Amino acid sequence: MVLTIPCGRSLITHMNTALQLLLRLRKAMHLVAGKTIGPIVWLCIIAYFTFYAIYGERGLLSMHQLEAEVDHAKGALATVRDERQRLEQRTTLLRPDSLDLDMVDERARQMLNMSHANDVIIMLPPRRESSPDKPAATR
Fold it and tell me: Domain residues for 83?
């Protein structure tokens, strides 16, 4: 291989000029990259947190779903409270200090499936929703 050197300049001068051009190009690339990479990284971070603020486990959509579950649970709580109040009222009638003899008689007959000799018994068709605490609906 034969290396030819252009007239008037030495090989070192040409290499020095090429090296300076490469250094300028590298410096320009670092400036461009430094000015664009930073904002791109911040944009990615903002997009990540925005996505999880909406769709994440504790995001806006999950919050709406949890609010619906809370409303459902509040409805169930109201139903249970009403049932508890009704049962407390019935048990109050069975306490020794406020004993209601009619209530005791009713419960004893219902539990033992017995009646008094002078009672008139009327047979009714079975209830659809059989519950000893709820009276049958009249038609």
Answer: 58-115
Q: How many domains would you assign to the chain?
A: 2
Beta carbons within 8 Å of 132's beta carbon, 6+ residues apart? 110
pLDDT surpasses 60 at 67: yes
Instruction: Give per-residue pLDDT as tens, 16-45.
Output: 788 888 888 888 887 777 778 888 888 999
Distance, in Å, from the CA atom of 9 to the CA atom of 54, rounded to the nearest integer, reads: 66
51 and 86 part of one domain: no
Q: Is the domain of 50 the same as that of 63?
A: no
Determine the pLDDT at residue 71. 96
